[in-house]
Amino acid sequence: MVKSTSYLFFFISFGNFLSVYFIFQNDLRNDGRSKQDYRPIELELDIVTHANGSARVRLANTDILVGVKTEIDVPTSNRPEEGKIEFFVDCSANATPEFEGKGGQDLATEIGNYLGSSFASPLSFDLKPLCILKGVQCWKLYVDILILECGGNLFDAVSLAVKAALYNTMVPRVETVAMDGGNVDLQLSGDPFDCWRLDITNIPCLVTLTKIGEHLIVDPTAEEEECSMASLVVAVTESGRINSLCKTSVGSLHPQTLTDALKVGVEVGVGLNKALNEALGREEKRLQSNKPERFGFLK
Amino acid sequence: MPTDNRRIQGPEISTPYCVFGSSTENEDEDGCFKSTDPLSSTRKDGRALLEHRKIYMKTGVVSQAKGSAYIELNNTKVICSVFDPREIPNRVEYSQHGELFCVLKFAPFSCTTRRSHQQDAEEKELSLNLKRALEPAVCRHEFPNFQVDIYVLILESDGGSLAASITCAGLALADAHVPMYDLVTAASLGVAGDVLMKDPSEEEEKLCSQHFERSNLNHGLITVSLMGAHTQITQVWQTGSMTTTCVSESLTHLIQSCEETYPIAQRCLVKSVVDTISKKKVPEQS
Lengths: 299, 286
Description:
Chain B: This is Exosome complex component MTR3. The structure holds two protein chains of two kinds. By secondary structure, chain A is α+β, with helices and mostly antiparallel strands.
């Protein structure tokens, strides 16, 4: 039984491989995109009421929901002047049956770790404004990422959603801080709308470059990921700096391919950041208009 | 949190005393170099900027393991053992390719601050990078549905732990007679402003992960692992913030370092083979 299914799978994937592979000859992919095109992306902000910031990104069949919660914590002893940020990725079994039980855990840690390392530099996200009282109190941002549907290219979609959610995040303003015999006395502003926003200008977007045959493509679908030999994830900021770089799949790359991939990745990443910023501006305007038109939570 | 009574645990909340050290630790970056001219300057340990530390490698250090290796780069000391393939536990479906099960662990006393016995997030991340670095080099179709266990223990950490672990694990895999396409060697490089430092030590790594207010903003660390005979990069891992040109330049230097390490690893393996043969011959002669 087991063998027959695996053969069947083999034929399906081989058929896929042929169709995916040959279509490249005309610089066109299965779905009519060129090598460096993204699939249509939908973006919604502020859709979870209890989160300080939230965003939902749908990249064709990949659906990501991100909520940011802010809490008060004690800064670490070796970085007393900085706040904290933590990423948690949940690959729920809703997305694909493979994630059932502990199935999605490896992927979840991989995405979480990679996001962490792309945010690590103070040039991508400065943690200093999150400090309330040096060495005593700071804000901690919990970024919870929920993968609702899996249609390939999780890294890119997750990073877009995280950047959007952080853009949307409102951190309550602290009015007074007083030390009272070793205890900290915080006074938050009485107005729930008296908040400040995070600086997201330098937060990178992740761009996955997948190598299929001799071609480098961006935004692979699930089928294309199946046929890929190696993929590279590059974290690119709006100014075109590389804030993190990692190979994520089985397979290896020639040094020349790697340098070519970096160039393509930065080019695509800069464009992606710009497009996201424009979309965020538009969404913000829509939310601020008196009667924002609601499309529903999951349309 | 569940407590572990069998091992010595520190108090729940403790602060390493080095935090309270004088602020001279955070002096400017030039403190690491003896002179201010980056090209002619030497580092604290007397190396030139693009000079790798001396490497010592040895295979067959753990008698109980199928294959093992030890690597030493000055104060970075890593030991790795590889065990026989075994069936993948808790797996129902058949997998066409064998798997590598990598566990990377820092010894509790390996760093300036004490490490816990349980794997923390950093160790998990490094384990995954190690796995990704080794996977392309192993003929995984030769042992379908089986996994090879690779345990890496960092005895002492003084920068370049991941690179040392990858090279060490590559050697141990070869020593364990696991079928491979090629040997894997790795190298690390630190960037601080205009300065590129090959194989940075712990102190230099710390320096590179900070950012200084100056015209050139580049800073960060890159680790690359390479299959020497095929010139294929098996893993690349960069943190920090750099321009594309800086990354490409670093990559060229790193590939060169990996290629320099490759013959050392080869010689180490040849030596272990020669030793085994000569040991076997002795009883015949007597």
